[in-house]
Amino acid sequence: VSTAYVSGEKAGLIKEEPYYMGDTLNGRTGLDIEGEKKLIEAKLQELQDEGATEETIKVSMKDMGMERSMHWGWPNVYVFTKALGEMVLMQEKGDIPLVIVRPTIVTSTYKEPMPGWIEGVRTIDSLIVAYGKGRLTYFPGDLESIIDMVPSDMVVNAIIVAMEAHANKTGDPVIYHIGSSVRNPVKLRVVHDISYQYFTKHPWINTDGKPIIVSHVKFLDSIDSFKGYLTLHYLLPLKGLEIANSVFCQYFRDTYMNLSRRVNHIMRLQEVYKPYLFFQTIYDDENMEKLRTEANERGVETEVFYFDPKAFDWEDYLINIHIPGL
């Protein structure tokens, strides 16, 4: 199980094609997993020899992971290591049948084991939760960009059907994109409007027992615009509070801490989702569509093993299943 985002930030139609050892997204040559491992091990040993603290080691290794990912054209360590994993499987598979599935953004279940079931808050959900808590008023993004999502039970069903279809079969490896951008696309504008409708009708309650009032998010058309807004409305006031605290014996400490946490949270969200905020990518699912057709022809119980993204309505799913599940 990989991820559709092994393609990085490429725009346009992404085909269901494999990665081979040495492939990169920016055309650089020389990528080798053993070489990457040696670089990482050497860096870790260097930090340990210097007596670095656990926190320093953690931060330094994270920074190095990001540096190596971007060196080869991937936007973060997660998708870089997924791509490396695919390369290793392609290299080592031998005669073993190989199927690689690449889901897009995996969201809560559509039906099973119950509608809206989810563990943890990830990807697009972090933005929805921050919005529901009143913490997201401005954010970079293109309202016309497609948010490629798929419910987790559909991902599981697709994996099971693909395993059954390819068991004990020889031949070339098969790649499957599991997503919705081709068959049932939904735009950021729709996700935002539905979130606004939901939280207006069903507001979350704050620590004071009062309903949280949400407003429409102001989406900024570039990262630079967002950073300018953040500086003017948050970073400069934060600096002023820091100075005031030093003058007035930490009198504004609580206000400073609350604003600081809010700024850090927004900056983390922006950093995590920066590669996808202006996404112009469609994940071709021709192989997956063939699998659906063949499953129907073989008599697979598609009512049980459902994985057709055209089978549900995004508004109904988001407002009645997914957001309540969060």
From TrEMBL:
Enzyme Commission designation: 1.2.1.84
Segments forming domain Thioester reductase (TE): 1-159
Alphabetic keyword roster: Lipid biosynthesis, Lipid metabolism, NADP, Oxidoreductase
Top EC class, one word: oxidoreductase
Protein's UniProt keywords contain Lipid biosynthesis: yes
Reactions listed under catalytic activity: a long-chain fatty acyl-CoA + 2 NADPH + 2 H(+) = a long-chain primary fatty alcohol + 2 NADP(+) + CoA
Pfam families reported in the protein's UniProt record: NAD_binding_4 (PF07993), Sterile (PF03015)
Domain Fatty acyl-CoA reductase C-terminal: start-end pairs: 234-326
Keyword hit for Oxidoreductase: yes
GO molecular function: alcohol-forming long-chain fatty acyl-CoA reductase activity; alcohol-forming very long-chain fatty acyl-CoA reductase activity
Any single biological process term in GO: long-chain fatty-acyl-CoA metabolic process
Protein task: Catalyzes the reduction of fatty acyl-CoA to fatty alcohols.
The family this protein is said to belong to: Belongs to the fatty acyl-CoA reductase family.
PANTHER family xref list: FATTY ACYL-COA REDUCTASE 3, MALE STERILITY PROTEIN 2-RELATED
Protein name as it appears in the record: Fatty acyl-CoA reductase
Species assigned in the record: Opuntia streptacantha (Prickly pear cactus)
